[in-house]
């Protein structure tokens, strides 16, 4: 059981990077960006292909980050310059990235068995693979939380947050909202691609289909983090996102341990998101019922 928990935590820490990326678009910009389903696979494809061809794994991971940022830029250009709705812009980029990822890898999947990854240096100290992944992912998550907390406290970061909160008021204050939307999408998809690169190196392969359903996983982690870990400031919010991703992975591990078929996982995730999103409505519905019960008592 301990091995299952440690595996879930290590995987949850990696997915926490994508969860933070999804949070930037979904909460800060109020955009449901489906680009992430393509950019996650793109990060994995770039990192795996680069490592397979002899590139240093750290450089390959950085290249994957840049690839995801480029994908976010394309979605941003579709939305801000061509005036395509944000949801459709993400879908168009996601579809295009499927072909791009196949071009990058040259085939449907690439194996990284017996090749150096970003976790290899930790494993050389005698740390097993799961703990090495956990430690490296923890360092990445804490570093990202610190950087993003600082960045979103700067003038540009506050402008991104203001754009999502009230775009008309932001324009009245002289903020170029189109540029802020594009920057938010670039940062978000860069983080998602970074997550994809780390996942590919963790599981020792990359597959063109590995991004399917990732947006639902990201939303589930965001909502679980918000519902369970009620944060009061932005720093705590970022921490709660990471904890939400870990919690989601622990739930999945427990559900699988209890005997749920793996084929039902996506349905379970969708139901989890639906229930979490409907919690405010359920609370509003149950409040009058509780009030009437108290009055009768």
List keywords for this structure.
297 residues, mainly alpha, two-stranded antiparallel sheet
Structural account:
The chain is mainly alpha-helical and 297 residues long. It has 13 helices and two strands; from the N terminus they run ααααβαααααβαααα. The chain has a two-stranded antiparallel sheet with strand order 1-2. The longest helix is centred in the N-terminal third of the chain and has 27 residues, at 2-28. The chain starts with a helix and ends with a helix.
Quick rundown:
The protein has 297 residues and is mostly helical. It has helices at 2-28, 36-52, 57-80, 86-105, 120-123, 129-151, 155-165, 167-172, 177-203, 214-228, 234-257, 265-277, 279-296, and strands spanning 109-111, 205-207.
Secondary structure elements and pairings:
Blueprint: H1 2-28, H2 36-52, H3 57-80, H4 86-105, E1 109-111, H5 120-123, H6 129-151, H7 155-165, H8 167-172, H9 177-203, E2 205-207, H10 214-228, H11 234-257, H12 265-277, H13 279-296
Antiparallel strand pairs: 1-2
Helix pairs in contact: 1-6, 1-9, 1-10, 1-11, 2-3, 2-4, 2-9, 3-4, 3-9, 6-11, 7-9, 10-11, 10-12
Please identify, by name, the CATH architecture.
Orthogonal Bundle
Mean pLDDT, nearest integer? Answer: 90
Return the string of H and E elements.
HHHHEHHHHHEHHHH
Tally the beta strands.
Answer: 2
3D shape:
globular
CATH superfamily: ABC transporter involved in vitamin B12 uptake, BtuC
Structural class: mainly alpha
Adjacency order of strands in the biggest sheet: 1-2
From the 3D structure, determine the CATH topology: ABC transporter involved in vitamin B12 uptake, BtuC
Give the helix tally: 13
Rg over CA atoms, rounded to whole Å, is 20 Å
Q: What's the story with the biggest beta sheet?
A: 2 strands, antiparallel
Unreliable parts:
none
Strand content: under 5%
What's the CATH class, please? Mainly Alpha
Domain module tally: 1
Helix content: over 70%
């Amino acid at each position: 059981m301990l091995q299952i928990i440690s595996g879930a935590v290590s995987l949850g820490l990696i997915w926490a990077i994508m969860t933070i990326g999804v949070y930037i678009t979904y909460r800060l910009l109020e955009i449901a960006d489906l680009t992430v389903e393509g950019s996650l696979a793109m990060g994995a494809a770039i990192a795996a292909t680069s490592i397979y061809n002899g590139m240093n794994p750290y450089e390959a991971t950085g290249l994957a980050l840049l690839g995801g940022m480029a994908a976010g830029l394309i979605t941003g250009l579709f939305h801000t310059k061509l005036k395509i709705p944000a949801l459709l812009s993400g879908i168009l980029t996601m579809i295009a990235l499927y072909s791009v990822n196949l071009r990058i890898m040259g085939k449907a999947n690439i194996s990284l068995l017996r090749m150096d990854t970003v976790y290899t240096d930790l494993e050389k100290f005698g740390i097993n693979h799961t703990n090495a992944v956990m430690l490296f992912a923890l360092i990445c998550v804490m570093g990202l939380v610190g950087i993003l907390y600082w960045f979103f406290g700067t003038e540009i970061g506050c402008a991104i947050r203001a754009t999502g909160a009230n775009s008309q008021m932001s324009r009245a204050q002289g903020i170029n909202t189109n540029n802020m939307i594009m920057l938010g999408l670039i940062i978000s998809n860069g983080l998602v691609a970074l997550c994809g690169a780390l996942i590919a190196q963790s599981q020792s392969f990359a597959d063109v289909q590995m991004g399917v359903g990732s947006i639902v996983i990201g939303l589930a982690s965001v909502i679980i983090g918000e519902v369970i870990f009620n944060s009061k400031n932005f720093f705590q919010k970022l921490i709660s996102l990471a904890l939400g991703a870990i919690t989601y992975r622990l739930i999945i591990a427990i559900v699988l341990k209890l005997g749920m078929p793996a084929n039902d996982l996506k349905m379970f995730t969708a139901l989890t998101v639906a229930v979490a999103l409907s919690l405010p409505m359920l609370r509003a519905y149950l409040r009058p019922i509780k009030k009437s019960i108290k009055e009768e008592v």
